[in-house]
Amino acid sequence: MKTKMVLLCWLLVAGAVLACQVPVFRFALERWPADQFELLVTSRGPLKGELREKLDELQKTLAADSNAINLRLQCVDLDTLTEAERISLPALDHAREEPTLALMPPESWKAGEPVWVGEATAGNLDRMLDSPLRQRCGEQLVKGASAVWVLVECGDPEKDRKAREVLEAGVKQASTVLELPEGIIRREDLNKDYINIDPDNILRSDVPLRISFVTEVISRDDPAEALFLPMLLEPEALALDEPLIVPVFGRGRTFGAMAASQATAEHIVGASEYLCGACSCQVKESNPGYDLLFSRNWDAILKVEEITADSEIIQRNLDVVIFDSGEEPVAAAEPEVGPGHTRLLIGLVVFILVVFWVLSYLRNRNRAAAS
Fold first, then answer.
1. Residue at a domain's end among 298, 324, 348
2. In a domain, 171, yes or no
3. Quick check: is 198 in a domain?
């Protein structure tokens, strides 16, 4: 058993120096929870009618499943406002005399202003929480799309035509030249032949892994997307009188928009290359982009399984499990130590002895020189 442990520790060190090979788009889809928005609903006196019914339904949904949508909801009656609420809710500065919806961005946006403020109606609430474009993007992402490239048209036929040509050329080129990193372990391929694995390289869902880009075109004046566009696009971009190109990936995340007049096919290929490259930094906050509001429980839809030593897929497929978590290596079975393992162990022992001999020789030589 000790022999096996020594071998496993060396394999762990060997695997630890390798970066995670899962591409950014897939890492974001499986492992980056979406940041939460905050919706503040203000009124004078109790809310009534269809809006009240929809808010009650939303509260029940969030109470039953906090991951159903990346949103926190708070309703405040200005006539009975407490001092604690007044202090803790900066969005109250945007409250109006009539019932108001104020959508505050996640803290990660580092923006103190609301994404959108407007009349609190059942229709506005529906358009805020979901939209046709978000539904189509979500469906494509969980089917395995690397990214959904969205073109927001400005209404000028010539500008919109040129923007479509640039987007189509960039997506076509990216689909042709880009390749997935080596070393990714698909769940269906995991088997007992693997000796040295990095658990971070094992996919956590059965979504097909491929390089695949989808394009969507919407009008800037589309009323169904009127409350989504301020989330998708920065105010500066929205103010431009030209088409905008923006990617959506992961669990509804984007880099932001590029003005079509400044975009080239190479820009689109470059952004796509980042998304399809190995995830060199697994910390979400250290990667470019910001999250959008999506009404879907990604973990439930994807059936994501975090890989641990006790994971059924590990216990079923591997004899030996190594996890870089500071815990003891876990043996899932008691396999025979074959000739290949024995030769590797002997080689490692010889290597250690050689290293010690070289260090001892150098130390003695330095002592002799000093004397």
1. 298
2. yes
3. no
Per the DSSP assignment, residues forming a β-bridge with 152 are 218, 244
Backbone angles phi, psi at 92, to 5 degrees: -60, -20
pTM over 0.90: no
- Write out pLDDT tens, residues 317-329: 665 545 554 444 4
> Residue 189's pLDDT band (boundaries 50, 70, 90)?
confident
pLDDT at 6 over 50: no
CA distance 198 to 202: 7
Q: Of 32, 270, 301, which Cα lies nearest the Cα of 144?
A: 301
Query: What's the Rg (C-alpha) of the chain?
Result: 27
Give the residue from 28, 33, 29 showing the smallest Cα distance to 282: 28
User: What pLDDT, on the 0 to 100 scale, is given for residue 344?
Assistant: 47
Q: Angle CA(6)–CA(22)–CA(248) in degrees, nearest 5? A: 155
C-alpha atoms less than 13 angstroms from C-alpha of 40 in its C-beta half-sphere: 23
- Whole-angstrom distance, CA of residue 345 vs CA of residue 339: 10
The answer on 165 and 53 residing in a single domain is: yes
Least confident of 18-27, 82-91, 262-271: 82-91
Cα separation of 343 and 27, whole Å?
36
- Give the C-alpha separation, 161 to 271, whole Å: 22
Instruction: Tell me the HSE value of 161 on the side-chain side, using a 13 A CA sphere.
Output: 3
In a domain, 2, yes or no: no
CA distance linking residue 108 with residue 60, whole number of Å: 26
Domain presence at residue 311: no
Whether residue 288 is found in the same domain as residue 353? no
Into how many domains does the chain fold?
2
- Look up the domain containing 353 and give its range: 336-366
Check if the beta carbon of residue 155 is closer than 8 Å to that of residue 219.
yes
